[in-house]
Amino acid sequence: MKLTETDFQAWMGSVQARMETALSRLLPAGQVAPAKLHEAMRYAVLEGGKRVRPLLAFAAGEVSEAPRQRIEVAAAAVEMIHAYSLVHDDMPCMDDDVLRRGKPTVHVEYDEATALLVGDALQSLAFQLISENRLSEKNQLEMVRTLAIAAGSRGMAGGQQIDLDSTGSALTLQELEFMHIHKTGALIRAAVLLGFWCGEKVNENERRHLDRYAKAVGLAFQVVDDVLDADASTATLGKTAGKDSKQGKPTYVSVVGLPEARRMAEELRGQARAAIAGLGDRARRLAELADFIVLRKF
Ligand code: GRG
């Protein structure tokens, strides 16, 4: 039986396709010197991933009626930071993994030094993109600042440090949450806020609602990631499954157990939806994305 594509799936497919084209255009061509680095950057970013952060940026842009040409640049910048984090996370000095997005990781396909440079160069390119394109009359500097904080020691990089230090030790639920708010949640929040700020119809009250939504969705994303790591196969995930427990990493599943982790994800989905309930139909895609993030199987 052929399943009918829902309106949400069609929207998601169109954003994903648009992002593939935008990312390909915004990355240096593979033939441009230094060709090895540029090819490896393209390998790390293109043809892979769910593009959850760009989807969130596009959905948040609908709330402020942001032009899509602006959102795609902001979303590309966030996705490049995300891709850099995956490349570095997979390196032998961190998680030491050989499979990502169904392909050999960058240090396996190329080499370690190139993987390091791919991450460095993607991070720089992200900031180049959001500073040199005209993304907003009022909020451009705030966008640069928000992305910088989200990626840095008070965001993703800091969360990664806590993650590395916590391997083999028991964390409380509160400590685990603190780690994930930084490691995963900060960039998800940045994706939502940057998408929103690409529009001119922005107000502080709506930003606060989106912020609450982003925090709930960011945590939900991680809880579900932990559930899938314990529950899904490597083939389905396109990355090594079951690795967290093998490496002795504290996860929501190890700290509260699988049924409670599933219940928490469901509760966070409710919190995310409640945070934007007052925004009406402009927030429809955000609500659908909260469902997608919690109910996904990969
Ligand atoms: C190296 C500074 C630095 C940070 C790394 C994000 C991160 C921090 C590491 C990734 C490791 C990991 C499995 C984190 C859990 C949540 C997560 C970010 C999963 C991967 O994101 P998805 O599912 O990946 O959006 P795709 O491939 O779909 O883009």
Which percent range fits the helix content? Answer: over 70%
Distance between the termini: 22 Å
Structural class: mainly alpha
- Which CATH C-level class is it? Mainly Alpha
Q: Major beta sheet, specifics? A: 2 strands, antiparallel
Can you tell me the CATH architecture? Orthogonal Bundle
Shape: globular
Q: CATH superfamily assignment?
A: Farnesyl Diphosphate Synthase
Into which percentage range does the β-strand content fall?
under 5%
Q: How many helical stretches?
A: 15
Order of helices and strands: HHHHEEHHHHHHHHHHH
Low-confidence spans: pLDDT under 50, at least 5 residues? none
Quick rundown:
The chain has helices at residues 7-26, 35-45, 52-63, 68-89, 106-109, 112-132, 140-151, 156-166, 173-197, 204-231, 234-237, 243-246, 252-256, 258-276, 284-295; strands spanning 99-100, 103-104. With 298 residues, the protein is mostly helical.
Please describe what this structure looks like.
- With 298 residues, the chain is mainly alpha-helical.
- Helix content is 70%, strand content 1%.
- It has one domain (7-295): Farnesyl Diphosphate Synthase (Orthogonal Bundle).
- The protein has 15 helices and two strands.
- Strands 1-2 form a two-stranded antiparallel sheet.
- It is globular and about 45 Å long.
- The mean pLDDT is 93.
- The chain binds geranylgeranyl diphosphate.
- Geranylgeranyl diphosphate is lined by residues 49-50, 52, 85-86, 88-89, 101, 156-157, 160, 183-184, 222, 225.
